[in-house]
Amino acid sequence: VSQPACPACGGGWPPADQRIAEFPLSVAYLHDDQFFPGWTLLVLKRHATELFELTREERAQLIEEVSAVARALHGAFGGVRKVNYELLGNQLAHIHWHLVPRLADDPAPSRPVWEVRHEPKRLSADQRIDRLARIRACLSPC
Amino acid sequence: VSQPACPACGGGWPPADQRIAEFPLSVAYLHDDQFFPGWTLLVLKRHATELFELTREERAQLIEEVSAVARALHGAFGGVRKVNYELLGNQLAHIHWHLVPRLADDPAPSRPVWEVRHEPKRLSADQRIDRLARIRACLSPC
After folding, report:
1. Spatial distance between the Cα atoms of B14 and B27, rounded to a whole number of angstroms
2. Nearest residue on chain A to B70, alpha-carbon basis
3. pLDDT per residue over B9-20, tens digit each?
4. pLDDT tens, B68-93?
5. Closest to A73 (Cα-Cα) out of B120, B50, B91, B46
6. What are phi and psi of B43, to 5 degrees?
7. What confidence tens digit (pLDDT) does each residue in A10-67 have?
8. Chain B contacts of A82, Cβ < 8 Å?
9. What single-letter DSSP state applies at residue A61?
10. What predicted TM-score, i.e. pTM, was given to this entire model?
11. Strands ordered across the beta sheet of A26-30
12. What is the pLDDT of residue A92?
């Protein structure tokens, strides 16, 4: 099920070269802005906007995929204090999770990432390829 | 399983008079600050800090409870644009979800709640009792 006007359904977002891995119900991508290293987007393949629109089986599988990516991020970066899991959809309602490992040198460890004003950090192509590989190496099937 | 130094395990947080409902794995409470009407906390009963510390069965049940509360919030308030689901734990690592219905008159509908500076809004006891009842009336067993 897809919706014509939805960028996540149309394949225009997120960019294909930021793709980490595909799961049964979702696809993981590295976020554009890597100011918080490892910030990952996990995008549902089908169109839905709220968890309660999914079937019970879909919710159970999706949270396995969320958990697997969080575990991989925890493993891929040293000294993760906490993983943040956020399903917002205020700008793009298509279900996607922001999964952010909060590292030991985080500039504001007690605050949500949204409160931390910063210049977005874009990786070079080489840096991106390295980071994708580092996260993939910590993923196990889920 | 509980941890002695954890406020969520010790029963000191959130306050009992903000309790909405109890589920098999979690308890829902109205958040202190009702600037965003309906902001709810869903607190895991046992101590754990990351989704990947739970069993698969616990994750499946917990996401049912998250979804049920989100559905209730969607039903209890008119004109919900989107529900926000956030599991952060930056200040208190014990698993708890922030579930926030973003209403039609939201002051910053495209932004995370954390970016919206505001004076916290505390309800009077009567207002709180009304709000608890309104949410409970929209909860169905999960």
Report:
1. 10
2. A52
3. 988 899 999 999
4. 999 999 999 989 999 999 999 999 99
5. B50
6. -110, 125
7. 888 999 999 999 999 999 999 999 999 999 999 999 999 999 999 999 999 999 999 9
8. 49-50, 88-90, 93
9. H
10. 0.97
11. A19-22, A26-30, A40-44, A96-103, A80-87, B80-87, B96-103, B40-44, B26-30, B19-22
12. 96
What DSSP character marks residue B122? P
* Spatial distance between the Cα atoms of B89 and B119, rounded to a whole number of angstroms: 22
Put simply, the answer to whether B115 touches A111 (Cβ < 8 Å) is no
Q: Which of A37, A101, A103 is nearest to A72 (CA)?
A: A101
pLDDT confidence band for A141 (50 / 70 / 90) = low
**What is the rounded CA–CA span in Å between residue A20 and residue B53?**
23
Cα separation, B112 vs A91, in Å, equals: 10
> ipTM score here?
0.97
Q: What token pair was written down for A6?
A: 């939805």
A7: left (phi over 0), alpha (psi -120 to 50) or beta: alpha
Which distant-in-sequence residues (6+ apart) come within 8 Å of B49 by Cβ? A82, B89, B93, B94, B95
How far apart CA A33 and CA A35 sit, in angstroms, is 6
How far apart (Å, rounded) are the C-alpha atoms in residues A87 and A25? 15
Report chain A residues touching chain B, CB-CB < 8 A: 49-52, 54, 56, 59-60, 62-64, 66-68, 70-71, 74, 81-91, 93, 102, 109-112, 114-115
Instruction: For chain B, list residues whose CB is within 8 angstroms of any CB belonging to chain A.
Output: 49-52, 54, 56, 59-60, 62-64, 66-68, 70-71, 74, 81-91, 93, 102, 109-112, 114-115
User: φ, ψ for residue B129 (rounded to 5)?
Assistant: -60, -40
- What residues have CB less than 8 Å from B125, skipping those under 6 apart? B17
- Tokens 């504001």 identify what position? A108
Cβ contacts (< 8 Å) between A58 and chain B: which residues?
Answer: none
